[in-house]
Amino acid sequence: MEISSKEIAAVSMLSPFERYNYTIKRIVDWERLFTIRGDEGWAILYVDDRPVYSLWPSEQIATATNAGIIDGSIISEISLDVFLNTVIPELKDKGILINVFPVDNKSGFVVEIDEIVRDIAEEEANY
Fold first, then answer.
1. Given its phi and psi angles, is residue 47 left (phi above 0), alpha (psi -120 to 50 degrees) or beta?
2. Could you say which of 15, 57, 88, 119 is the most buried, measured as most Cβ atoms within 10 Å of its Cβ?
3. Whether the Cβ atoms of residue 52 and residue 80 lie closer than 8 Å to each other
4. SS3 15
5. Which tens digits make up the pLDDT trace of 5-54?
6. 101: left (phi over 0), alpha (psi -120 to 50) or beta
7. Residues 44-96 pLDDT 10s
């Protein structure tokens, strides 16, 4: 899905919670999301000493907001199905939080696994 540079700039300026809501709608709409991978798998960062898995609604947004903040990391697409059925259980087992739509090395909206799963399910119910 192509996003205009004007939309990227506008959503990047939103509050973390507004970016979270935007992201939930887009990943349900497009049935995919984007994260970063390092040399050894998913890139896990830290916010307030808590491990977080960062995600964005599009590759363009991830690129524009400096997603590749770890040397050697790459932006990686994941289907919503793989995220919910494979990635989420692994993250939950490890106690990792979700950092939604961070911008320029500042955290996004950080949520527990159960919260993002619930919000995705609620958004899917609208379709």
1. beta
2. 57
3. no
4. coil
5. 999 999 999 999 999 999 999 999 999 999 988 777 778 888 889 999 99
6. left
7. 888 889 999 999 999 999 988 876 566 678 889 999 999 999 999 999 999 99
Counting beta carbons within 10 angstroms of the beta carbon of residue 65, is it exposed (0 to 12), middle (13 to 18) or buried (19 or more)?
Answer: buried
Give pTM, 2 decimals: 0.91
The CA-atom distances, in angstroms, between 68 and each of 53, 92, 93 are 13, 23, 25
Give start and end residues of each alpha helix (H) in the chain.
5-12, 16-30, 59-64, 80-82, 88-94, 113-124
Among residues 119, 108, 117, the alpha carbon closest in space to that of 54 is found at 108
Chain centroid to Cα 27, Å, comes to 9
Q: Is the dihedral of CA 48, 49, 50, 53 positive or negative?
A: positive
The reported pLDDT for the residue numbered 37 is 87
CA dist., res. 100 & res. 79, Å (int) = 16
Q: Can you tell me the distance from the alpha carbon of 52 to that of 6, in angstroms, rounded to the nearest whole number?
A: 28
